[in-house]
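Hey, can you fold this one?
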Amino acid sequence: MAQTFECSPPLFAGSFSLSPLQQGMLSDSLRKGKRGKDITQVVCETVEPIDLPIFERAWNKLAQRHEILRTSIAWEGLREPQQRVHLNIHVPVRAEDWSGISDAEQKLRLESFLTQERRQGFDLSIAPLFRVGCFALGANRYFITFTYHHILLDARSLGILFGDVFEIYENEKSGESAPVAEVASYRRVFEWIQANDPRKSEAFWREM
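Sure. Predicted structure:
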């Protein structure tokens, strides 16, 4: 009797090596064994109503648009660390209602939450390496928090991501849901680094 085998669907869209800066962050994280290392946080206060289901959907579409948001880091049993782009991830939005407490208490609660988020940190082998929060303050006011590991993003990328997520959100809210737009892959940056001669780079910086 012929045997049949079920093939599991692929989990990853691809993998490639880390940039030198990412390698340094990974090495530092593994050496010190601290999950709270290299954690960055952004807090926005909005003054318009937030539709939470649509807001969460927007973040998940954002992750489909930018593969770096679907990336985890693998190193165990490998000759060199790899960043793996997952085909799909789920981005939950933590939502709480703080509208029944004073402004001072809201700020204290926010600081406590942010401290807890930094202490929790991230397991670099598990995507996503970021978390989103949305906290109602009353009268259509919200704190939106974005906590992420610096191995994913630099500060310049934040403006792009937040511009994209609110564009997706507004489109979803108006019923004009657009397909996920293709954007440049982070792996192009790695390919550019690999194509450069490190000796020329060293000579340039020594001269500088």
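The chain has a mean pLDDT of 89. Let me know if you want another pass with a different chain boundary.
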